[in-house]
């Protein structure tokens, strides 16, 4: 990875701080490193580094005992958070992707998108080392595109993570409807899910909620493993018709363009945790360990996706439920949703926390209240958490079709924030690199241009396909309607 260090000279100054000195674009980059800024950074007017021995961060300012420690993540806990921000809702849509595309095309799509988005995740870390003042993708957009870029990309980022949180509320309502046999109006269950998520999301630092990542990871994995085992043992999938039936699996299917693009968009959604990775590297003790956490997390998540998708599709075939946990029979459905419920809550918590933290930092970034236990600090924090979950609730109820909502988020927002931005970030940071024109530089530039082109196509085509399907479902009324009390569990 030496090519990423050609335009900077990184020198370690202590075990907890780094000073990063950049050689070009000095108007856009700080001359002090991530742990050497006296107070929340003003990007246009960076401050000189202090020498008081305290932890000073380019985003959080001075971190001491008079406030939460926003720099306390190790690489292992970072990997767990990266895993949990992705495994959850996405994995529940992957068996349906294989049903639409077939085994071989489906596996190829999963692997290719895993490679592209793993690269995007790595670029987040490289960009953070070059620009320590970055905490979200909106900060990166500000550096590259100015104030308007920050507002546009920042809104897209915020909307994506809020929409994913909303999708988790929808999945939580399905779980409650399944386990209680629709004991209450579905809107009530969505509200319950939003309230539970809001309570956990209000915990202020990622370090303090990292233990929830373990809970969520174990929860979802136990649910999908139970699903796979039950699917192999059951004689009749839950969606199979009465009487005789035949399970059909295809090596390669022949879907329509709209169905194929929607399936690919679900895979993009399954890897759409990249926005959270900005926050994770921003709260790590040693950001240089970030790449290690990404490689570990993405390797594990891709293996899980392939195993869960292929095994479930093999045993259930065309009778895949949406979400997939309801595929193996009524009793097993209750068990799997019971096991998955903590994981669904944790997934919503991480995304709601990220969305709220973005607004929180934007409001208080140049204020002492950002990292101090003041009344203003708490009022702003709890207000933005409540607002975030409220918007997520509206999204969940406005588009109450699980796979269609995943497709729309993946196509419209996932491709922009998880592919296009990171490809451009690498090109922007390396356009004037000293090794420009070398074979390595040419190959890397070509790769990022190709990734950018793929992301652009998927965003345009995927958004069109998702809108077509959502419109058809709304008009037909067969799949429910907005703000409906109807049972969404398929019982």
TrEMBL record:
Protein name: Amino acid transporter transmembrane domain-containing protein
Residues covered by the Amino acid transporter transmembrane domain: 72-467
Spans traversing the lipid bilayer: 87-119, 152-176, 183-203, 209-233, 294-316, 336-356, 376-399, 405-428, 449-470
Gene Ontology CC, one term: membrane
GO molecular function: L-amino acid transmembrane transporter activity
Membrane topology term: Multi-pass membrane protein
Keyword set, alphabetical order: Membrane, Transmembrane, Transmembrane helix
Localization in the cell: Membrane
InterPro entries (UniProt xref): AA_transpt_TM
Segments of skewed composition (Polar residues): 1-21
Family: Belongs to the amino acid/polyamine transporter 2 family.
Pfam family, one: Aa_trans
Region ranges (Disordered): 1-53
